[in-house]
Specification:
Length: 239
């Protein structure tokens, strides 16, 4: 796979495009997972309403392009959530639904990954950061495939996807950020029991860890869609 698109985001991040607001969004998602792990359905719905407010606050001072990218991610991610959770039951949430905070949560995840990729540390040392992701992710993948209590072939496949994104994707910094954010949320969410991955996929052929070790590689497809589709959507927008 070869992607030649150029990442259209500005090289110099503004204050709003920096780390503070996306970091607040990630902190809020951590609170959501902690509360939801023992809450009832109506509390879960209330968490969803507040998460939308947090997302809109984070998006408010972002560029039009970044806002469009976030909406593309949410559209793709929400479709996948409803397909793979309540329909195919590849993973299940506590109430066997898609919690109301999940769609806006995907927007916050994207913005957090984007913010990490735009930090001076990542931009100045992108090669080293990518290498660190490959090493840490590779160790995690090997552990899941050969040593974990549940064999994790899906995680190994997704890690291979992540390698492809880091090698040929339009924004390597974004994928570095996605690895950190998605891995963190998957570990926390499954540890709290907010969602649980099934031992095998619906075909019964692909074993899955809880969580899959390379989940960030799967999430990379949402990021790629955002980076490639958002400029095209904006180009067709009436002036």
């Amino acid at each position: 796979m070869s992607v030649t698109s150029v990442d259209p985001r500005p090289e110099t991040p503004t204050v709003a495009a920096g780390v503070l607001l996306p970091a607040a969004g990630m902190a809020w998602l951590t609170v959501v997972l902690l509360v939801d792990s023992g809450a009832g359905l109506w509390v879960q719905r209330a968490l969803g309403a507040v998460t939308w407010v947090v997302l809109l606050a984070v998006l408010h001072r972002e560029t039009t392009l970044v806002r469009t990218q976030a909406w593309v991610v949410m559209a793709f991610a929400t479709a996948v959530e409803y397909t793979f959770s309540p329909l195919l039951e590849v993973y299940l949430y506590r109430f066997e639904n898609v919690p109301a905070y999940v769609p806006p949560g995907h927007g916050l995840v994207y913005l957090a990954a984007l913010a990490i990729g735009r930090t001076d540390v990542v931009r100045r040392h992108l090669g080293r950061c990518a290498t660190a992701v490959v090493l840490v992710g590779g160790i995690y993948g090997v552990y899941g495939l050969w040593f974990a209590e549940r064999t994790d072939a899906l995680g190994a496949f997704w890690f291979c996807c992540l390698l492809g994104f880091l090698a040929w994707g339009p924004s390597r910094g974004l994928y570095v950020g996605a690895f950190l954010v998605v891995t963190y949320l998957e570990v926390v969410g499954t540890a709290l029991g907010t969602w649980t991955w099934q031992p095998v996929d619906p075909t019964g052929l692909v074993p899955i860890g809880n969580p899959p070790s390379g989940a960030a590689g799967g999430y990379g497809w949402f990021d790629l869609a955002a980076l490639l589709l958002a400029p095209r959507l904006l180009a067709r927008r009436p002036r």
